[in-house]
Amino acid sequence: MISEVVRVGNRYTIVIPRRVRTALGIKKGQMLRMTLEEGKIVIEPLPDDPFKEFEEVLGDFQYSREDRRRAEEFLLKEARDRAGSGY
User: Fold this and answer.
1) Cβ–Cβ under 8 Å, residues 60 and 50
2) φ and ψ at 85, to 5 degrees?
3) Which of 35, 46, 49, 59 satisfies CB 3.0 to 4.6 Å to 31 for a cystine?
4) DSSP state of 47
5) Does residue 42 contact residue 87 with C-beta atoms inside 8 Å?
6) May I ask the CATH class of domain 10-85?
7) Average pLDDT, the chain
8) Where in the chain does DSSP place strands (E)?
9) Cα torsion at 55, 44, 15, 2 (round to 10°)?
10) Contact (Cβ atoms closer than 8 angstroms) between residue 69 and residue 78
11) How far apart are CA 9 and CA 30, in angstroms?
12) How many Å apart are CA 73 and CA 16, to the nearest integer?
């Protein structure tokens, strides 16, 4: 288990320590989900490419460019909605 202490900065920002970023493979610009669970903040990385995640779960499947565009729009909207609502 990796445990680090961080300080809350201006505008309530925190820096994810290098050991944690490396262990989770977090990259600049990557979306993260922040959840409040029983008085604790849980931060988890979201996949860079949701289709790659689907393929790992479902195996190889076919989809059109239009299907991919619609799915990407839906997933981005869902991520933004959840991030904005504190979900």
Assistant:
1) no
2) -95, -5
3) 46
4) P
5) no
6) mainly beta
7) 86
8) 32-37, 40-45
9) -100
10) no
11) 20
12) 28
